[in-house]
Amino acid sequence: MEVEKITPYGDARGKGEQVEEMFDSIAPAYDFMNRAMTLGIDRLWRRRAVRFIGRTVPAPRHIVDVATGTGDLAIAMARALPQARITGIDLSEGMLAVGRRKAADAGLDGRISFEKGDGLALPVVDGSADVVTIAYGIRNFADIPGGYRSMFRALRPGGILVVLELSTPRGFVAGALYRLYTRTLIPLVGRLVSKDSRAYSYLPESIAAVAQGNAMTALMEQAGFTACSARAMTFGSCTLYIGKKPDITF
User: Fold this and answer.
1) What pLDDT is attached to residue 186?
2) Around Cβ 32, how many Cβ atoms within 10 Å?
3) DSSP string computed for the chain
4) Are 75 and 106 in contact (CB under 8 A)?
5) Chain-centre distance of CA 30, in angstroms?
């Protein structure tokens, strides 16, 4: 099944509405569950993405972080790239509220703004971003090609797109252990901690269905991105995707 057709609650509402409700529901437990599910390795994945941006884009002025959630990536970029202004955009007001508190506690609320908005129609000026990022959010889109077109529109010519997304490890042993962990342990802990019986069952379902590797970079290329690449991390459980908006577009 295509990932766009997999929804958190399986009812007649659109995927965006269901995703918004799900993240509002789990927002208080989200950061704890992220650390627990990944054993803290999610921090290393974000650091790798931030290091790539720092090496690739000289002094980025404006970064748009799509599906920013509670702001972990936005805050990491603000700390590492002190010249950058960051706009974090998310469907869930519950997640954004947590992100605003975290940015204020870190003394970064003057450089990070959090706005409620849809990744399919980003509320930013065309061509205004040097970098667009999205971490663990692309599989939640109701229309992934449409999401990439929206991000392409937000970037200036020559700007880069950086995508972190969970993926399925390759290899018999790694794959078997991963399936056991994601399909059994994560939903169990998620139900106990977040009280949302579906949110952490939706997680492994959406990871298994989302385009991965070359299939994902093909979607990026269809939206107009060039020099697309996929870099697997931690036995393939997370992938860093990179694309560039051409310097001259027609």
Assistant:
1) 64
2) 13
3) --GGG--SS-SSS-HHHHHHHHHHHHHHHHHHHHHHHHTTHHHHHHHHHHHHHHHHSSS-SEEEEET-TTSHHHHHHHHH-TT-EEEEEES-HHHHHHHHHHHHHTT-TTTEEEEE--GGG-SS-TT-EEEEEEES-GGG-S-HHHHHHHHHHHEEEEEEEEEEEE-PPPSHHHHHHHHHIIIIIHHHHHHHHH--TTHHHHHHHHHHHS--THHHHHHHHHTT-EEEEEEEEGGGTEEEEEEE--SS--
4) yes
5) 14
Please name the amino acid found at residue 135.
A
User: Which mean pLDDT values do the consecutive 10-residue runs of the chain (250 residues) have?
Assistant: 91 95 92 82 95 94 98 98 97 98 97 97 97 97 98 98 92 62 64 68 88 97 98 93 86
| 8 Å CB contact between 122 and 151 | yes
Q: Is the pTM of this model over 0.90?
A: yes
User: Of 141, 94, 95, whose CA–CA distance to 120 is shortest?
Assistant: 141
- What per-residue confidence (pLDDT) applies to 185? 63
Tokens linked to 28: 């208080």
Cβ neighbours, 10 Å, residue 197: 11
The span from the CA of 162 to the CA of 168, in Å, is 19
Q: Which of 97, 57, 53 is nearest to 73 (CA)?
A: 53
How far is residue 45 from each of residues 73, 172, 187, 201, 204, measured CA to CA in Å? 10, 23, 22, 23, 18
